[in-house]
Amino acid sequence: MRVLVVEDEPLLAAAIAEWLRDDSHAVDVAGDGAAALERLTTNEYDVLVLDRDIPVVHGDEVCRQVVESGSMTRVLMLTAAAAVTDRVYGLGLGADDYLTKPFAFAELAARVLALGRRSHPADPPVLRRAGVTLDPARHEVFRDGRYVPLSKKEFAVLAELLRADGATVSAEQLLEKAWDEHVDPFTGVVRLTILKLRRKLGEPGLVETVTGVGYRIP
């Protein structure tokens, strides 16, 4: 999934981003509300992890604008304010979930995953196609019963191809879902990742190139 983390404490923001990247999510980071709104207008995010007390534009206003825009982005609000009235107010703004600080990173990751499932049609618990089984929860891939060790990006790309259910996925779509905003789209990173994925999945070849369009698993 594509996740935007909005947190003005750099160390905490980096820790959250790293934890979510370990779950194969593409993560961007913003340090204030204005930067968050700018990214939200240029990128499509599945989940917004939003610190409530942020500078420039307050988190409440960011949440309000996201909700009023009709975006499918799900909002997980983070705050040190733990009172029931604070939680009720945050949810009343349209936030989908509310997590108080301090929090366990494992719980945050689980909530992000749950919210991401709401932003698009639910995936089956395990993705299967053409002899390949991908388990997002366990982060495991098998082909015809053989375990296939994949990197985080290879895993994310394979998941997107399996979710497409035989349809072609463009390189731009893979960049959007599997990489963050810092990737250079002209480096050929998608093509290189596909090559490595093909090698690890083995023969017969599984991932097809549709010239000028993208990639698919028929």
From TrEMBL:
SUPFAM superfamilies given for it?
CheY-like
Q: Which residues bind DNA?
A: 124-218
Q: Which Pfam families match?
A: Response_reg, Trans_reg_C
GO terms classed as biological process: regulation of DNA-templated transcription
Q: Show where the Response regulatory domain sits.
A: 2-116
GO MF entry, a single one: transcription cis-regulatory region binding
On the tree of life, the source organism's domain of life is Bacteria
Keywords on record? DNA-binding, Phosphoprotein
Q: Which residues form the OmpR/PhoB-type domain?
A: 124-218
Query: Which Gene Ontology cellular-component terms appear in the entry?
Result: cytosol; protein-DNA complex
Which sequence positions carry the modification called 4-aspartylphosphate?
Answer: 51
Name of protein = Response regulator transcription factor
The species this protein belongs to is: Kribbella albertanoniae
The lineage is: Bacteria, Bacillati, Actinomycetota, Actinomycetes, Propionibacteriales
